[in-house]
Design brief:
- With 233 residues, the chain is an all-alpha fold.
- Helix content is 64%, strand content 0%.
């Protein structure tokens, strides 16, 4: 009982500390499988990836090689700055919330992040597409040889999910949030970690997860809390 209590306290502390990988994996072990939207309910939004050798697959690789030939050190540095799919890496400098994030904001953002991450994980397991640099050794990713599966892109899905949320919190800044999400997603292609079709699938999944959240009263209540905690401009 004491061990369980300590684990629960540790989990609570992590949830209040931010929104990132450490919190996600600890919560995956000890928390529920979702807060607002179950992964299984949104997987139908993601089509199968292009068949190997298909015209769309070939276009994916052409785009990857084009970026490999023309990307700059600054391009790679920007991709590396967002190597982790976390709220701060995507939106820290344009966040509508106070800095540091209030505990209630951190808690709600983590719930959104967790549901998005679980949906991404389930979709990746379903399609099991390998990363492009594992399929063609001529690709040299400047992000390094990122582990895990490729389709859909978790960065594209999670950044899109956050961008849609922030757009409802601060509607006048919607274009800024979506542009930042699009760039975070593109960075994964520039860095050689994802096919372009991974990115498009990630955006579709992010859209589906957010649409599912909006149907849930618990999420709508949390969204109102976020609006009240945003910095007024």
């Amino acid at each position: 009982m004491k061990l369980r209590k300590h684990l629960a306290l540790g989990l609570a502390a992590l949830l209040l500390s931010g929104c990132g990988y450490a919190q996600f994996y600890l919560y995956k072990l000890f928390g529920p499988d979702h807060h607002y939207v179950a992964a299984a309910s949104v997987l139908g939004a993601v089509p199968a990836p292009p068949a190997p050798g298909s015209e769309e697959d070939k276009k994916d690789f052409q785009t990857l090689f084009d970026w490999q030939a023309r990307r700059s050190e600054a391009d790679c540095a920007g991709a590396l700055a967002q190597a982790r799919a976390e709220y701060g890496a995507f939106f820290g400098d344009i966040s509508p919330f106070p800095d540091p994030l209030p505990p209630d904001v951190s808690k709600i953002l983590f719930r959104v992040y967790f549901d998005g991450g679980m949906a991404v994980g389930a979709a990746k397991e379903r399609f099991a597409r390998q990363r492009p640099f594992r399929r063609d050794k001529a690709l040299k990713p400047c992000l390094g040889k990122v582990p895990g599966l490729s389709y859909p892109s978790g960065h594209a899905a999670v950044s899109r999910l956050f961008a849609l949320l922030l757009s409802d919190v601060a509607p006048a800044r919607r274009a800024d949030f979506l542009a930042r999400s699009d760039r975070a997603a593109l960075n994964r292609v520039i860095g050689g970690a994802h096919h372009p079709s991974d990115i498009e699938a990630g955006k579709l999944l992010g859209d589906a997860v957010y649409a599912g959240m909006l149907r849930e009263a618990a999420f709508r209540a949390d969204l109102e809390k976020l609006k009240a905690l945003a910095v007024k401009r």
